[in-house]
Records
---
Amino acid sequence: MGIACRFGKIRPHGDLVDAFPDQTEMRTEQVRDLKETLGELNPDIKLVCVCGNHDIGDRPTEQTIQVYKDDFGDDYFSFWCQGCKFIALNSQLYFDSSLCPSQKAEQDAWLDAELSPSDCKHKIIFQHIPLFVDRPDEAAHVYFNIEPGERLRLMNKFIEAGVSTVFCGHYHQNAGGFYQQLECVVTSAVGAQLGSDGHGYRLVRVSEEKVEHKFVKVTDQIN
């Protein structure tokens, strides 16, 4: 999934390649092809990558995370742009960290520090796996969402810190909703579709007052 932002950045939201970390030969070829393609971007367009389950595995380990970091950089990070703070998370650690609990603990401590009070216009989260698909109180913990207890912990943490929006992918169709004032935006894929939304990306416009977004099919004209 991709997000194009008025700040001139493109953010692929996980599953940068299809091959899992243990599919070494296929993954190496896919990473090479992806980097060659991304190398054709206008250099004025900044690229920020967010890791997904195909990138580090459904049950990540320290080793698979390191493979991703060697290929694409940090698995979680933050940056500022025009007075707004953006935080990219390794959401797989909130889905299943059973094989790498220390990595989750490290990200949690880092996240608490990043969410501490700061003078910014907006705080926005990027992660691959959605907090929820249809509604914040959905009970099931399935392949496409975060476990309810962990979900509630994260949502309350984000709200307390003043986060307005969480942008996600993974579901391969558009979804999401609100938990109190926190919006979870789930965007369909540029490639493989599981619904009827079509191939596309999400265009995000950030102003002083609000964060606006719309899904754009690759065949649409952008105004």
---
Amino acid sequence: MHSMNRRRFLQYASFTSGSTALAGLPAFATEAFPSKPLSLVVPYPAGGASDTSARIFGESISKSVKQQVVVENYGGGTGLIGANKVLAAPADGYTFFHGSINEVFLAPLLNPAARYKPQDFMLVAPISDANIVLMVRNGIPADTLDKFIDYAKQNKAKPLTYATVGIDSIYHLMGDALGARLGLTFLHVPYKGAAPALQGLAGGEVDFAILPYQSSFDAMQQQGRLKLLTSFSKTLPASVKHIPLISQSRIVPDFEYAISGGYFVRQGTPADRVAVLRKAIGEALNKPDVRGKLEAEGRTVVQPVETQQQANKYFDQYQARVTELIRSVGRKTNAA
């Protein structure tokens, strides 16, 4: 045993003497990162707003880190399935999450099936605020939000149905909050993601939908498959100025919401690897073509963050906003 310890010591001594700059650093710090493809987990099916955004980033991040970024879609459970995939993977930086306040904050606070807490994730960098819109199926005789509200009030006996990406998503809570505000009951119909919810609306399965905006909605409106009535944002990028803002409503002008998203890793991921990812995300955010593509999808793009402290500040702001939204609809959190 003594000779084995001595042999280990000699091996370590020869290693450190040959590379004094690395002495004392943990083993992972000496590995090139990344040295293999990365998994970018999207918690919704292909074709939705999250998936579109992730593919725009994935291409740029891949060029920055000189490794393939593989986008993996896990729909269902209002993002729970995707979130669990990230938390079940090693905290080594090779699996990162295209997440939002839905999966990282709302799900663990409201859904008893969520076996994790927001703090199990670390925010690498915020990326954008998505523009949330309300759309109606083509048969509804309303071309403004206020006319739609009037229609809903006239049809109180038969409550209107609305589609979202899933139970306890921000869109679900907004539908509940809007109904409570107007003294109306809306029936929630959860789908496995934005793409199937959109198909449900276009196919007339539901009366309206609350979803993150995508440029494909405009083409569907032109084809007469749905009507875009309002954005819940305060301001919009120039490319989507054609969507009426909630502030134009005379009934609920202050009903403002946006959905913030970013890239997350499992808590405990080595800081140097998080820094590599943050730098690659920052490089993507600084590219005019990436910003242009995101803005065309109705997203307000944030400025890159450079430190973990800056990222943590965003994380805390997201948590505070979500807690306030939950309180505003009279829901209790799992911890309560």
---
Amino acid sequence: MDPYEVLGIDTSASEEEIKNKYINLLAEYTKNQDDTTPVKIQVLNTAYNKLINGRVYKEIRSLIDKRNFTGAEAKLNIVNDRNSAEWNYLQGFVSLQKGWFEAGLNYIKTAVDLEPDNTEYLSSLNKLQSRIIDYITKYQNVKQSSNPNSNNMNACGGGNNSGNGGMC
């Protein structure tokens, strides 16, 4: 999707021109509603966010590339556009780096839900899900191959020679 084409503006349009065109199109879509209006508004919002927040998102990606996750998170908190697929994707990546796996996965799932055709988001989600499957498989294999009595310890915290007849 070309955000300039969606908004019907030139690539040299100023931020003011982008905002004015967005407001005018949004008003037009709202005034002349039909069955396609929600989709049109979603596409319009996505295009607008890409153009307006695009520079900030590039900065955030640069911070992530430099492993400056604190700086990236601070910028994401300033933008705080939870309806943007890009925001959710980047927030998911930062969350994963902080060790918040479930939150990170949920943010990336949201990004994919918002932009299901985005190959970068889909690829990241698929990699995460693949890692989950690998982890579960390895965990189950370790659990099955380990012998619970191999450490000669019982549930009471000692070996069977505790002098209490094997009872706790």
